[in-house]
Specification:
- By secondary structure, this protein is of the alpha/beta class.
- It folds into 2 domains: about 200 residues, Quinone Oxidoreductase, Chain A, domain 1; about 140 residues, NAD(P)-binding Rossmann-like Domain (Rossmann fold), CATH 3.40.50.720.
- The protein is built from 11 helices and 18 strands.
- α11 links the parallel β17 and β18.
- α4 packs across α5 and α5 runs parallel beside α6.
Length: about 375
């Protein structure tokens, strides 16, 4: 069928809304009519070239939700009219990682930046009008009015789910929340230092608060983001990491934070080093943000790493198990314990996608959302 979507023809580049063709679903696939999509910074990393993809053009978007309009043959568990929230990482449920509770590391994710079907790097479900293939960002492409996806990437949601907000559960919320709760292991009474309070950092604040952290210190140069962090549960919000580290040390006899979470917009090794300097002995640095994939090196003192037993941990999707964690977070939202409405600063039409990213770069949004 014919649809419209926002594509990148190259990187660096800008999104361009064009007419596309999207295939009917095959076995173990569903076609979705999109309701909403979050404007995640990761798609901007694709646009800048920090996160290159294998196939151009590529239709962007990986955080969204919609309604099933077609179900592939011999595909069980889905019906037309079902609501779905995407997981930007697939979960097959069978590989070593899925079977040991690490669905975020599912083997299917090996082709995540190819834009093809998970098990066949030559098989695509989107085309330009001339028939040439279009890659799907993370196999999903939520920046399209309609998209065909593997069921490995979709989580069924209850009929009363407000997808215009629950769409955020497919990336930002789980990534930030899990960075604190799962990867960081924040515990009751902890002091937590969070570098960056955009769409991911704001949810790290919520996760740390839920885990019972006594002090949640947010560092962000943008006053609007600091104010939002305070409204979401941060106890302190400052403009520089030096200020944040001093506050953490003032509560811990000079030691530093128990956990530091790095969720800045574009990460460098220096950001990790700053977080490393801000944690106590046996403290943990959680690295969640993305930057240029070619960057190498973290300037941390080796002796301090050894003698203080400090830890640096990467965090992909907040170490989530999306098939369990997305429904859990949705239930927390529906029960009033998780804030999603407050995360959405501005809603955009698909044609205004580049304005949405300009607003993100200018610090005007916690999360922008495309409403279809």
């Amino acid at each position: 069928m014919k649809t419209r979507g926002a594509i990148l023809r190259q990187a660096p580049g800008k999104f361009e809304v064009v007419d596309l063709h999207v295939d009917d679903p095959r076995q173990d696939e569903i076609r979705i009519k999109m309701v909403a999509s979050g404007l995640c910074h990761s798609d901007d990393h694709m646009a800048t070239g920090d996160l290159p993809v294998a196939v151009y053009p590529v239709c962007g978007g990986h955080e969204g939700g919609g309604v099933v309009e077609s179900v592939g043959p011999n595909t069980s568990g889905w019906e037309v009219g079902d609501k779905a929230i995407f997981s930007f990482l697939p979960a097959c449920g069978k590989c070593r990682w899925c079977s040991t509770g690490h669905q975020n590391l599912c083997d299917l994710g090996a082709n995540a930046l190819v834009g093809s079907r998970w098990n066949d790097p030559t098989s695509f479900r989107m085309q330009l009008e001339d028939g040439s293939p279009v890659g799907q960002a993370l196999g999903i492409s939520t920046f399209a009015e309609h998209t065909t996806v593997a069921v490995d990437s979709a989580i069924k949601a209850p009929a009363d789910t407000p997808l215009e907000r629950a769409c955020l559960l497919g990336c930002a919320v789980g990534t930030g929340w899990g960075s604190a709760v799962t990867t960081g292991g924040v515990q009751a009474g902890d002091t937590v230092l969070i570098l960056g309070s955009g769409g991911i950092g704001a949810n790290a604040v919520q996760g740390a608060q839920h885990a019972g952290a006594a002090r949640i210190i947010v560092v962000d140069p943008v006053a609007f983001k600091r104010d939002t962090a305070l409204s979401l549960g941060a106890t302190h919000a400052v403009a520089t990491v030096e200020e944040g580290t001093q506050i953490a040390q003032s509560f811990t006899n000079g030691q530093g934070a128990d956990v530091a979470i790095v969720t800045v917009g574009v990460i460098t090794g220096e950001h990790i080093a700053q977080a490393f300097a801000g944690i106590r002995k046996q403290g943990t640095v959680v690295v969640t943000a993305l930057g240029n994939v070619t960057d190498v090196g973290i300037p941390v003192p080796i002796l301090e790493l050894i003698l203080f037993e400090k830890k640096i941990k990467g965090s992909l999707f907040g170490s989530s198990n999306p098939r369990a964690d997305i429904p859990k977070l949705l239930d927390l939202y529906m029960s009033g314990y998780l804030k999603l409405d407050e995360l959405v600063t501005t809603e955009y039409a698909l044609d205004d996608i580049n304005q949405g990213y300009e607003d993100m770069h200018s610090g005007r949004n916690i999360r922008g959302v495309i409403r279809f």
